[in-house]
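PROTEIN DESIGN WORKSHEET
SECTION A - STRUCTURE
LENGTH: 155
TOKENS:
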């Protein structure tokens, strides 16, 4: 929580005033696919990475109309020392699903250079994210009513 929420928020908020005053700058926040899918052993991690996604998406909206960019990177399994600290050795994973840190960084930077606001380094089909995000927006819009859904009304 200290790293994924507190440090990320404080660092982002510390950099933004200078970037906004000169109307230039970029922030790259790293989330995780576990922000989109939680498992019993990842609930805390997934929750903190969910914060990164929502915090970053909100800031992207706040920065619209400026020349300050915020890229959100959502990597899947990446070969770092994180797994040792988390008590899940990389050897427990199928090597075919673990990206090297170098490849993840290169993909993230390529996404940044292409102007992506959201980069999923291992997802080949960009339309998958677009479908997911459109469903998210549609679901949110469906919540914007003062009336309970008919299934919750007494018959």
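SECTION B - SEQUENCE
RESIDUE ASSIGNMENT:
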């Amino acid at each position: 929580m200290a790293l994924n929420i507190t440090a990320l928020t404080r660092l982002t908020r510390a950099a933004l005033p200078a970037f906004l005053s000169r109307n230039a700058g970029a922030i790259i926040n790293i989330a995780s696919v576990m922000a989109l899918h939680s498992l019993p052993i990842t609930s805390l991690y997934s929750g903190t990475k969910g914060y990164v996604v929502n915090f970053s998406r909100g800031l992207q909206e706040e920065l619209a109309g400026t020349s300050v960019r915020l890229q959100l990177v959502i990597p899947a399994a990446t070969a770092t020392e994180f797994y040792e600290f988390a008590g899940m050795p990389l050897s427990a994973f199928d090597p075919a699903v673990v990206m090297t840190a170098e490849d993840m960084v290169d993909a993230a930077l390529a996404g940044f250079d292409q102007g992506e606001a959201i980069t999923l380094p291992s997802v080949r089909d960009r339309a998958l994210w677009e479908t997911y995000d459109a469903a998210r927006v549609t679901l949110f819009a469906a919540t914007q009513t003062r009336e309970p859904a008919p299934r919750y009304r007494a018959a």
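SECTION C - NOTES
The mean pLDDT is 92.
Residues 2-124 form a domain with the Rossmann fold fold (CATH 3.40.50.720).
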